[in-house]
Design a protein that fits this description.
Monomer. The protein is α+β, with helices and mostly antiparallel strands and 360 residues long. The chain is built from 15 helices and twelve strands. It has four domains: 92 residues, Alpha-Beta Plaits (2-Layer Sandwich), CATH 3.30.70.270; 64 residues, MutS, DNA mismatch repair protein, domain I (3-Layer(aba) Sandwich); 48 residues, 5' to 3' exonuclease, C-terminal subdomain (DNA polymerase, domain 1), CATH 1.10.150; 107 residues, Dna Ligase, domain 1 (2-Layer Sandwich), CATH 3.30.1490. It is globular and about 60 Å long.
């Protein structure tokens, strides 16, 4: 018996952080807004649609964004507010299906093949969810509906903002062929550039390549690229997916040039990391410190421990010893970050013996 065609929705909030700020501050409405950074330093975390019309994008240096849009208004992020809105949205999702896979605070996959409302059409479910999000939060969302995750995510970009788009099974392969490979989820700028060097510019170009050719040039990802070029994606919607890492970073108002300031800077970014560990009952074995110098060069230092970090003091100690490996300083530092990966349940960490001083 043939497997039932799945019904997958990708819900994506429209310019989420910036939209929350515009909702809560009427003076920001209909104006170009950037969340994060400042007029002089840092990077844009999110941009309103008014700012995007000028070419402002997330991860763009603030100075570049200001040059593109001199009227850009910078707003400090309020993560507790974003998390609360995300929680409200998640509650709505779970009224329709338990199969919800969050990708971030502002987007998620839903498998509604069998749903709690017994609604036959995924497009109607998406429309109803979007209406309820607007009613309860005052924010708009876009949705993509298809028979797999890859196409659902492509579809959600097709009618942004505040729209939805369906890619039906008979249309999927043809839809993929017409798109530039840079639009594909899972193909970043570096991979896109490599594909273009190989003469692969569109989904049709990608489909023309053999599995062997793609594996030879892209390793393990070759099989994935071979499948999505044909509109195929067997990945399931996985609820409550374990987080692989947790990190926090900050750009300082002035570049740091003294070791004592560097060490204090590292300690200042630990709160978010450790509060997540305490809130979720998890911890990580690998500690990584990220350093961005004043000339924008980035270096990282990592250490994998024999057991998960068991306390904030252990995390502080590991992070400080890692950052000390860049001393004596050759140039000033503008950004510092700390992350934990190789996550495990805290029960394991609690059983672990106290960490000894790390030798580098």
């Amino acid at each position: 018996m043939a497997e039932e065609t799945r019904k997958i929705i990708h819900l994506d909030m429209d310019a989420f952080y910036a939209s929350v700020e515009q909702r809560d501050d009427p003076s920001l409405r209909d104006k170009p807004v950037a969340v994060g950074g400042s007029r002089e330093r840092g990077v844009v975390m999110a941009a309103s649609y008014e700012a995007r019309r000028f070419g402002v994008r997330s991860a763009m240096p603030s100075t570049t964004a200001r040059r593109l849009c001199p009227e850009l208004l910078f707003v400090k992020p309020r993560f507790e507010v974003y998390k609360e809105v995300s929680r409200q949205i998640r509650v709505i999702f779970l009224e329709y299906t338990p199969l919800v896979e969050p990708l971030s605070l502002d987007e998620a996959y839903l498998d509604v093949t069998t749903n709690l409302k017994n609604m036959p059409l995924a497009s109607e479910i998406a429309r109803e969810i979007r209406a309820r999000i607007l009613e309860q939060t005052g924010l708009t969302a876009s949705a993509g509906i298809s028979y797999n995750k890859f196409l659902a995510k492509l579809a959600s970009d097709h009618r942004k903002p505040n729209g939805q788009f369906v890619i039906r099974p008979e249309k999927g392969p043809l839809f993929v062929e017409s798109l530039p490979v840079g639009k594909f989820h899972g193909i970043g700028p570096a991979t896109e550039a490599k594909m273009q060097r190989l003469g692969i510019h569109t989904g049709a170009d990608l489909k023309a390549q053999s599995l062997e050719f793609l594996q030879q040039n892209f390793g393990k990802s070759g099989a994935y690229y071979h499948a999505i070029a044909r509109g195929q994606d067997d990945r399931r919607v996985v609820p409550d997916r374990p987080r692989k890492s947790i990190g926090s970073e900050t750009t300082f108002p002035q570049d740091l040039g003294r070791p004592i300031d560097i060490e204090e800077g590292v300690l200042s970014v630990l709160d978010d990391v450790w509060s997540y560990c305490e809130r979720t009952g998890t911890a990580g074995r690998t500690v990584t410190v990220k350093i961005k110098y004043a000339d924008f060069q980035i270096v990282t230092r990592s250490r994998t421990l024999s057991s998960p970090v068991g306390s904030r003091i252990d995390l502080e100690q590991a992070s400080i010893e890692l950052v000390r490996s860049i001393f004596p300083l050759q140039k000033k530092v503008r950004l510092l970050g700390v992350s934990l990966s190789n996550m495990a349940a805290r029960t394991e960490a609690e059983r672990a013996p106290p960490q000894l001083t790390l030798g580098l």
